[in-house]
Structures are given as structure tokens and as C-alpha cells.
Amino acid sequence: MGEQTAVRTGRGLLVRNAARVAYLVALAVTTATLGLPTDRIYQAAWIVVGIVAFAIDRPLTDHVRVVVDWLPLVVALVVYDLSRGIANQLGMPIRVDELVVVERSLFADTVPTVWLQQHLLGPDGAQPSWTLLTGIVYTSHFVVPWLVAALFYLNARPLWSGYMRRVLVLSYLGLVAYVLMPAAPPWYAAKEGVIAEPVARAAGFGFGIVPVDTSTRWLEAQSNPVAALPSLHAAFALLVVVALWPLARSRWLRVPLVLFPLAMAFTLVYGGEHYVIDILAGWACVGLASLVSQAWERRLGPPAPVST
After folding, report:
1. Domains of the chain: which residue ranges?
2. Which are the contacts of 94, defined by CB distance < 8 A and separation ≥ 6?
3. Per-residue pLDDT tens for 244-288?
């Protein structure tokens, strides 16, 4: 009897490891050939398949529940993505000059993005050797928040519920701001002549490997040029830290958590994607999203015990 149990356990371990390795290899090959899965539905499909692959030994009902749990959230986020361009259709005035005025008033008549690029970019806008680091930080926005969500779902579903509630509230707070007060980033202001100095999109999305113009064209195609305030890149970086902070018992684990939103803020301002005021507004939205979510949770009643 003990031998049969050992055989079943061994087979289960083999199937579990094989499923995980197959998923990671498929994801790596797809990313290397087609790029990161940044499209919302495509990204969600990878997340759901990954959760199933990493818990392949769980009952079929658990796998069905993954789809049932994630589908409404994905739909809500797709609606958010499709709604981000409403500001252009409504004809709301785009805030370009105002943010430049605020930045100059805060920083002794200097725009931090311009100052950083003048001191850190090489001749003719050549990117420095550490561009790979800022590229990784910038790109983490498309990966880290959803990796945290997947890990929470696999290990502690109540944590996942609270986290995703904050993701949704934060996303829609940003959407309201984009619709009511569309604002342009530094690179756009320079392009329109509001900032006299040139501003490059130097965040390093191409990791210093893909040419700068290729990275810029991709960003222009994927991003909304009137959705600068608040910065959801900065907001999501801080949200990840807030979610993981109670779980990081060691001081050494908390050091990278502190550095992550600061590194994101530097990358966004230096890279011409956001003003400092955008970063601060993004962080403020995280606090507001937490308050709204807490009120929401009080109406739902006490959470179920966390099981791991």
C-alpha cells in the first residue's frame, strides 16, 4: 500500500513539474519571439494558464473556478483599456502648459525631466550603459503587478481578492482623471514646443538592445499621450509594495520593496514619460484606492480566514 502511494506521489510530482517547466518554456519562447504579452486578454490568458499549470494536480473544479474568478476582472480591465481614449472623443482640453508650469514652480524654474536628460544622456541623446536597468524597471509594470496577483491566487485567495479589488479601483480612478482632465507627458510637451528643450523617451523599454526609435514607436502605438496624470506606472509600483509589505518579515526583504517605487519614479521622470507631479498623484491614488476598497470590504463583511 505504501509503495502504491509513493508511486502515485512520484507521478503527481512528475506531472506537476513537467507542467510548470512546459509553461515557463512556452512563455519564454513566446516572449523572445513575439515580445511581452501586454495585450489585456492575451496577458490574462497567460496568467490563467499559468495558474492552472502551477496547480495542475488540483481538482478540475478548481481549474474551472480560476476562469470564473478571473473572467469578470479581465472584462472590467478590458473596459478600462477601451475607455482610456474617451478624453479625445469628448473634446476635453488637453493639459500641456499647466503641468510644465507646476513643475517649474516646484523645482526652481526647472523641469526635472529636462535636467536629468541633460545630465545623464550622452551626446545626441545617446543612452547610458545602465539603460538596461531602467528598461527592466519600466517593463516591470507589465509583469510584476500580475505576477503578484497570480501568486496571491495560488497561495492565498483572500489576499488576491483584496489586491484585485484595489487594482480595479486604482485603474478606474485613473480613468476618471484621464477623462475629466487629460494631461500630456513631458515628451509630448516638448514635441508641441511647450518645453523648449528636446525631451527623449529614454526609459529604455528596448533594454538598450532595440534601437531607441523602435522602442519609441512601440510606446507611441501602445500608450495614451493624454493619460499622464496620474501616473499608473508609479501607482502600480507602490500598490505592489503595499500588498507585499505585510508579508516581508525581514528588513532585507523590505529594502527592495522601498527601492522599487523610487526606481520606477526615477525611470518615468528621467525617461520623459511623466512629471514629478504625475508620480505624486499616482501615489495619492493608491491611498485613495485603499480607502475606497476598505469601505467596500466593510460592506462585504469580515473576510474568510487566509489559507495557504
Report:
1. 1-78, 84-300
2. 87, 182, 183, 184, 226
3. 999 988 888 889 999 999 999 999 999 999 999 999 999 999 999
What distance in Å separates the CA atoms of residue 251 and residue 265, rounded to the nearest whole number? 22
CATH 2.40.128 holds for 84-300: no
At 125-142, the pLDDT tens digits run: 677 888 888 888 998 888
Q: How far is the first Cα of the chain from the last one, in angstroms, to the nearest whole number? A: 29
Closest CA to 291 of 249, 247, 242: 242
Helix (H) / strand (E) element for 22: namely helix 2-34
Amino acid present at 30: T
CA 175 vs CA 75, 144, 231, 275, 296: distances in Å: 15, 21, 11, 18, 19
CA atoms within 13 A on the CB side of 175: 17
What is the rounded distance in angstroms from the CA atom of residue 42 to the CA atom of residue 148?
17
Distance between CA atoms of residues 165 and 105, nearest Å: 36
Backbone angles phi, psi at 88, to 5 degrees: -65, -40
Tally the residues of the chain.
308
pTM for this structure?
A: 0.83
